[in-house]
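Last lecture ended with a question: if I hand you only a sequence, what can you say about the shape of the protein? Today we answer it with a concrete record. The protein is non-specific serine/threonine protein kinase. Below, first the input exactly as provided, then the predicted structure, then a couple of comments.
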Amino acid sequence: MSAPSIPPAISRKRRLTIADIRDGFTTQPVSNLLWNQEFLNCYDLGGCHPICLGDIFKDGRYKVVRKLGWGNSSTVWLAQDTITDILVALKISRADMSSASRREVLALEALHASKVTSKLMPALYDDFVHNGPNGAHQCIVMQVLGPSLKTVIESFYSERIDLEDLLRLARQVLDATATLHEAGFAHGDIDCSNIVFSVNNLANVSNEAFIIALGKLKTAELLRIDASPLDDKHLPEQLVGAAKWDDWIDEDEEDLRFVDVCDLFRVGDQVPSSEAEHNAICPPETIFEDTFDYRVDLWRAGHVIYSLIFASCPFMYMGDDDSLVNQMIDFIGALPPEWESRRQRTREASSDPIETSCDANSTTELETRFKEDVPEPELAPLLPVIQGLMRFRPQDRISARDALALLD
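The predicted structure:
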């Protein structure tokens, strides 16, 4: 099924800039929702669909009651199925990302065809296309799940998740990754934002009680600073804060699930590296090789486990591949010799190339971090797990199942 063409709409002369938002808009009541949610410049022809609480979809079947979250390609809402009276997650893609969202539907259908992989994902209930002022949006109706692993990690601030829970969650990440690979699939985008908790403890509560568990609702009316009418059908009239899960304490009882599977591919596939986004968690082969395969999941799983321990990402990315590679070398060790020629090209493209060298016998930043910041002997086995998963060459990485065995 192909997404319908974008319906006619009148676009602005240009997309909003950060300066336009800062100088042109405010909220009532005054709030930071302009800045801590999806930016207004994603609301334009081809972008996100403007939504207010109470909006209905699919001929009145789904009614929006809260916002769950957002990402680069979609917003996700808690909705009431007015036929069954159950709460569902309604994911609404950007209009220019509907083809990717359609791939996610097909991926979920493929994963739910097997009992082995279906347990790793949210249940898929429905999908449809919604036409709005910004275009045709693929919508996916799924089982409601809990907070992301990223949200829970951040909720501990400077503290570490309980050791027993941390190890249990690390095992679940590795087991889920291994199960996907053994079933012939690669997720392609594993990170702490795309791993969420189940909500079994809330399965039998009322809809009202579930909504309360999301945390305090924050909304604000979008206004122009000059008090002129908003008068822009591309923009939402209301800004809604995403669920905070402020009182969530169930990470010791709930299990992990993978979400956002629009990048799913087969284990035997070779994916062009041009399709990979360069960011702080991108595997090095997407920089140095023409293609990548399912073993990007292993690198990313190592990232997730590192984040569980240190509540941070091992690398920073500011748009400079050379700087990222230097951080990888400090973290892992020497770059493979066959990648040095390509590294020279990244250095030439860098605005501020930095010399770095790594002695084969020197202590890596990862080892130093464990020595200085991880005194708990229970967490010591996670060092070889991360080292095994986050090796430069994909063929040198240990499998997720072998990494799991290191924790037995």
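Comments.
1. The radius of gyration is 22 Å.
2. The longest strand covers residues 62-70.
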